[in-house]
Amino acid sequence: MKAKRLISAKSSRFSAQLFNIASVAAITAGISALLLGKLLASQKIGFLPFVLSFPPLMIWLAASIFVYASIAHHPNERTRQYHRWAGYRFYGATGAMVVFGQPIYELMGGWNGLMGVWAVMFLAVVPGGLYAIWKAAREDWQDMIIEVGIYE
User: Fold this and answer.
1) How confident is the model at residue 47 (pLDDT cuts 50, 70, 90)?
2) What is the extent of the structural domain holding 16?
């Protein structure tokens, strides 16, 4: 037996924007925590900016796996496309920083190196994410009716 289910246009649009919204928020929160830690830190606790900056990114990295998996098979192809590109941006930048973050940090040294790593993350994720959020908001989304199998 199959049941029909309505997926609203608003739901499809939000699903298309969700990964981008959370990625931009995580990167912005990490940079904000880094700057706040730098303002609060004295020479005795110089590691504070580093310690404060990474938890938002790490929490979103773990949560993003579940968000990505939940939207990856959305019935709307446009939603999946926005979502896929958001994942490419975030996971690509995060993976690149695993490889290139330490050399950037060592090349620039100390505080500047940490800011350099975060600047690369910011430039790779935030402008493209904000553009995708804006573009998805302006797109003409349609309600969808799908058939869902119900097992008795």
Assistant:
1) low
2) 2-149
